[in-house]
Amino acid sequence: MIKRFLQLTIFCGMFLLMLSGKASAETPFPKIHEPEGDGVKCVQPEDEMRRNHMNYILHQRDKTVHEGIRTETYSLAKCIDCHIEPDENGNIADHNSEEHFCNACHQYASVQIDCFECHADRPQKYIKRGNKKQALNQQMHDMLTAQSGNRSIQ
Amino acid sequence: MSDCVNNSRREFIAKVALASTVSIAPGVLLHSAQAKPNDKPVSSDTRWGMLIDTNKCAKGCTACVDACNEEHGLEGLGRPATDAQYIRKVTLKEKSTGHEHSLPMLCQHCEKPPCVDVCPTGASFKREDGIVLVDKHICIGCRYCMMACPYKARSFVHEELTNQTLSAPRGKGTVESCTMCVHRVDKDGTPACVEACTADNHNAMIFGDMKDPSSALSIELKKHGGKQLRADLGLNTGVRYQGI
User: Fold this and answer.
1) Which of B68, B72, B91, B170 best probes binding to A when mutated, by most A CB atoms within 10 angstroms?
2) What does the pLDDT read at residue B4?
């Protein structure tokens, strides 16, 4: 379904390009980050991944959640590990930004993704959980401890 | 010179202390080490469970709650009525004697989970190895399961979240609860709460395979028994308590 939608979107896009002439023909192609290093290859050829990455991830998703199969080849976390890296200033693009590997193409193709409403949009080593969280945690525990006297289950 | 010697001696002692902690930990945690290969599905030959000795559970200690919040990136928003909690401390009081003791309450990972019975989409499900989970990809946020759970174990995410941890994806509009740290268990690990309780030397929680007679959990259950909360409901819970 998504594939068809994607095809249709691309077809419409190309049709519009033809109609509108030079100005639209200059729509910038998304800039995507290619993992650097010798011999670094994606788990499938690029063409295959561009067309079918969603099927691989969807399949893996159900296998992992329901059956506990945790192979890394087609895991979303592994995609993120390779493709998301900080820029020269050490900043990592948010998943809503055009700079984000996934969002760059998805925005271009006008296909919405909701993976990152729950999943981390960056590798684990770049997830920063600061003092704010600790402070809130402390506050939460203080409340829970204070309340625990009032809670009973039997 | 003497400084040098002292420093290296201190380092040595620290290393020994660290090494002994590491070597004691697996012995204390004691869940049977049968690493499941990553590419094999979980099977019903295993049933993960937990035993909590409430006599060892220190009043006022929240090590398990802290560890759980840290592991899953649960952040309180200062709204205790709706803030997510996978595990909480409860104090029980015997009215006639005034005796009080505290225990951690979490998803009881029932064999016959009411949350699964009522789920209209199949999002609430039980894995083959007995761990009850929410598939948040399918959850529509109706919260029937929250009403069905006799243990008040589930929470709902009311607000948009950012900065989630890698191993615990969670987002607005879905129900969530204790996963028995399924991401750790699948890699032959121990739930964060049990680990924290052991690290704090309370040793009130044992995690293990209820179907493996040689696991520390089964041995302790056979020897001293363990009660189910609301056993009258016939849910056959995976979390058992001693001292209640």
Assistant:
1) B91
2) 47
